Amino acid sequence: MKKLLILGAGTAGTMVANKLSRLLDRDEWQITLVDQQPTHYYQPGFLFLPFGVYTRNDVIKPKRDFVPYGAELVMAQIEMIEPEHNRVRLSNGRILSYDFLIVATGADIHPEQTPGLGEHEWGKSIHTFYSFEGALALFQHLQTWPGGRLVVNVVENPIKCPVAPLEFLMLADWFFHEKGMRDRVELIYATPLPGAFTKPIASKLLGGMLEEKKIKVLPEFLVEHVDPDAKKLVAYDEQEVEYDLLVSVPLNMGADVVGKSGLGDELNFIPVDKHTFLSPKYPNLFVLGDAAAIPTSKAGSVAHFAVDTFGENFVRHTEGLEMRPLFDGHANCFIESGFGKGVLIDFNYDTEPLPGRYPLPGVGPFTLLEESEANHWGKLMFRWMYWNLLLKGQELPLPARMSMAGKWLPSVTH
Known about the structure:
Layout: E1 2-7, H1 11-23, E2 29-35, E3 39-41, E4 60-62, E5 72-75, E6 78-82, E7 87-90, E8 95-97, E9 100-103, E10 107-109, E11 126-127, H2 132-144, E12 148-154, H3 164-178, E13 185-190, H4 200-212, E14 215-218, E15 223-227, E16 232-235, E17 240-242, E18 245-249, E19 252-254, H5 256-260, E20 270-271, E21 285-287, E22 292-293, H6 300-318, E23 331-338, E24 341-347, E25 356-360, E26 364-368, H7 373-390
Parallel strand pairs: 1-2, 1-9, 2-5, 9-21, 11-18, 12-13, 12-18, 13-14, 20-22
Antiparallel strand pairs: 3-4, 6-7, 7-8, 10-19, 15-16, 16-17, 23-24, 25-26
Helix pairs in contact: 1-6
């Protein structure tokens, strides 16, 4: 019996467990997942919690509900990964050996890494929506917040879902309009990026949308520390921005056990081949989802497309065949823009987001790099698809590799 061990039963770990349980012979393979947290969180839903669009029950379910038949879910903290010995030590003393290991331990926020951020004003004048508890606390704070200067700040990239801070600002614009107090709120985005987004065409569009909504962007703002008593962000170049309410996206890092096991980079993300997810050091170790140090977005869509290409490749690898460079960095993201509209972007390693129609050329129903109500409903509909299809490894009628069909360069007139 061959042993497949999957560390992490979040988005990537759960999807790959379900996908491989269908592809591998159950009489020949034993699949084990390890996770210390019993609750599965629909992380894209954290964005909607502060504004009351979703409630807590919309974004949580038990992880056991999504474990494939025949697989074992071990609830324990991972103490050490020992790839030289093909084994993993758990904090309860149990040792799990494996023939193949998939690390899908994700990423988490670390406000303590920025001086002044996670101290006595955390949860008071400083909040985040990048955690379940943080998003719920921010909801409570916004119910009675009288207005003032609201600053959204990204400490450093990479972060999970790079467009989420922009979405938060545009939803805040809508939210305060709905409350009749938009004129009492100043919205500022302090970002380490040179613009609103990483890709030039999308950055120009999104930057323009923020400008129209009177949301100010402070580019190349690299925060050095927060002064929680004076309520101001201080950058390395001594630039300062004051706030009444700070909504922070703290430093994102991989799991502590990755660093402790000597597998990761300075942020505890694990280097792997960006097309196959295979470790360059260990021929039986793969990394999926946010835990991987690859040049693409840390987003659920990336995990989904990655798992779709990975399944076939993993089977080839276990049969002694050469892996194919199947994953192309494909990502697509619905960007909520407020007032019942949204934008959709679709891109990969080599091609930045372009305008067009998706997924059917000329038909859509979704528009790329263009606001529409259909994109808003697509964003909301995705939650049902996540719980009922994606996590369970079901096939979707979407190509895992990015297609240029239906896209065009902005200079071309249609």
